[in-house]
Design goal:
The complex is a heterodimer. Chain A is of the alpha+beta class. In chain A, 20% of the residues lie in helices and 40% in strands. Chain B is α+β, with helices and mostly antiparallel strands. A 6-stranded antiparallel barrel of chain B has the order 1-2-3-6-5-4. Chains A and B meet through helix 1 of A and helix 2 of B.
């Protein structure tokens, strides 16, 4: 399961860095693509940056337990935008739309190879993971920004030693 | 009638009054020392983003502080309120290049108290004359 989560994140991160290299965040002085897995972030950090994608893993289940080992796991992607200063934040909805379009682009094609990253260098595990199209919730107006969550389901075959 | 030639302005440096008073209060209440465990900046790399490695931790000693246990019952998890003077916290933060002391405290890995690492739940900041003079760190098991 961990390899699937890692492969999904790395795929989206690499696509983001390639397609939208200006979409970055700075954490502790280090600039990186603006996509974060919440469970891999420092536990003491609760504040989220605007104009960045935050991935959270949800429920996992067997898709058809009787006939297949295929698993499905929900991934929620949260993002918020406060707009730009020169427009006084009035364009926060438009910035939100840009983030949505970028997310749709990152999720396509909806398949990637599954790698094991624990050893340091990625090791191909011989199977793919694939996922559904993201489905967005209604945008929520929060103080100074507009936020949205999109959910998708990642499908994978569990490895024997996971 | 007495008139002033120029409008009265706040006394320069009056924000220091509250900072010194807070420090004096903490010392008179039997100041102690606590350890703040902070996460060092992450090493850039995939391992960090995947939650496999971290930059390590540094223990920062804060003095003077007053620790108040807010636990009500013996079987309850330990809850603490640590009062830290702005002077002590600012000195520790500025040597590490930190400007926003409250956020630095809030994002610390925890407070070490009686060999237990307690999670920092919130930080309350007291202000006077536009300056911070006391931090309340609320921590729990």
């Amino acid at each position: 399961m961990q390899a699937s989560k890692d492969s999904f994140y790395v795929t989206l991160r690499d696509r983001l860095a390639q397609a939208y290299p200006e979409r970055t965040i700075t954490v502790d002085g280090i600039t990186r693509p603006a996509i974060v897995v919440v469970e891999n972030d420092k536990p003491s950090v609760t504040a989220r940056q605007h104009d960045a994608f935050y991935l959270e893993w949800g429920a996992a289940r067997a898709v058809r337990p009787a006939i297949s080992t295929l698993m499905a796991m929900v991934c929620t992607v949260s993002y918020a935008s406060a707009g730009t200063e020169q427009n006084g934040g009035l364009d926060r909805g438009r910035m939100q739309g840009t983030l949505e379009a970028e997310l749709l682009g990152l999720c396509s094609p909806a398949v990637t190879k599954k790698y094991e990253y624990t050893s340091g260098s990625p090791v191909y595990l011989g199977s793919n993971i694939f996922w559904s199209q993201p489905v967005s919730d209604a945008a929520k107006a929060e103080p100074g920004c507009v936020a949205r969550e999109a959910s998708l389901t990642v499908y994978f075959y569990p490895e024997v030693n996971q | 009638m007495y008139t002033v030639s120029a409008p009265l302005e706040p006394i320069a440096g009056r924000e220091r009054v509250a900072q010194r008073a807070a420090e004096a209060m903490l010392r008179s209440l039997g100041a102690t020392r606590v350890t703040l465990r902070i996460a060092l900046p992450a090493i850039d790399g995939l391992g960090n983003q995947l939650g496999m490695t971290c930059g390590g931790f540094e223990d920062v000693s804060l003095y003077p502080v007053v620790v108040r246990e807010t636990t009500m019952f013996a079987n309850e998890t330990v809850k603490l309120e640590v009062l830290v003077s702005a002077t002590a916290a600012s000195a520790a933060a500025t040597t590490r290049g930190v400007a926003d002391v409250a956020t630095w405290l809030l994002e610390a890995h925890g407070v070490v108290y009686r060999d237990k690492l307690l999670h920092i739940d919130s930080v309350i900041v007291d202000h006077f004359a536009g300056a911070e003079y006391l931090y309340h760190i609320l921590a729990s098991e």
